[in-house]
Amino acid sequence: MKITPVVADELHHKMSIVADEPDLQECYEVTQAHCDKIITWCKARLIPEVVSPKLLLLMAGEMENAADITLDQYRDMPSDDKVQRNRAYYAYRSYCGFVSLMNEQLATSDTYLEPVEAPTEAVKPPRAVVTPEHPIAYPMTHVTWVPADGGRKDAGFKGETGDCGCRAIAIASGRPYAEIYARINELAKSERTGKRKTGVSDARTGVYRVTMNRLLAELGFVWVPLTAIGSGCKVHLHRDELPATGKFVLRLSKHFAAYVDGQLYDTYDCSRGGTRCVYGYWKLEEHP
After folding, report:
1. How far apart are CA 285 and CA 287, in angstroms?
2. Which CATH architecture has domain 138-284?
């Protein structure tokens, strides 16, 4: 598949960084040869039709990080700087398009842990482990995922929903799901709207940052930023890059997740194989 010059240049830049950092290679579970292979594709602006799921995840994750950072930069640009804003918006759309292509390929693969050296040999999904503390958990090389809905089902709620903010807060704080649900909708009533922000938070469909900040502050959480504009992604959803102990609400790209004592609690494994960028987290301050 052909890729745009802006995607090729950005992906080339990111893979060059990974190729020079052994720690990053260990985090992504790739080698310098893997990075060099992607760099070669970038130079040709052509990605092969058959690519290892591990490399698809790596490329999609880095481009999604680039898309989110570019969108933040676009929003911070002066409205009269049309040239730079147009460039930033084009780059953002290009990154999003590339991520969509990668996700389409990932959707047809059996597993994202398939070895790069043997792409035709699938690896079995991680086996569930039952412990007294967690009835079911999935230990993987990058993180242990514990399926959890934050108490939504037990509270009587039904149907599919986009309640990641409510769910993550309920899990990390240990508060009842219904209590967090009601408090989010109560705080949403005082939110302001404008040209960019036309709606307000809803516990069922999504929570804006302003309400996340207010509610988590009420519950004793403190915000810790992990990225800045232009800095790139520094921390990923990987056990080696996040604190081993403590209760956290992670801010990811268009998603929130609970991370408690080194384990990911969510309705699905949202880590993307340990490559998903963590923009920051709210940490529960434990007081004696």
Report:
1. 6
2. Alpha-Beta Complex (3.90)
- Predicted TM-score (pTM) of the model is 0.57
Tens-digit pLDDT profile for residues 37-65: 898 999 999 988 888 877 887 888 788 77
Local confidence band at 24 (pLDDT 50, 70, 90 cut-offs): low
The domain locations on the chain are 5-107, 138-284
Q: β-pairing, 263-266 with 144-147?
A: parallel
> For residue 71, what pLDDT band results from cuts at 50, 70 and 90?
confident
Asked if 10 and 91 count as a contact pair (C-beta separation under 8 A), the reply is yes
Between the two ends of the chain, the Cα-to-Cα distance in Å is 57
DSSP-derived 3-state class of residue 122: coil
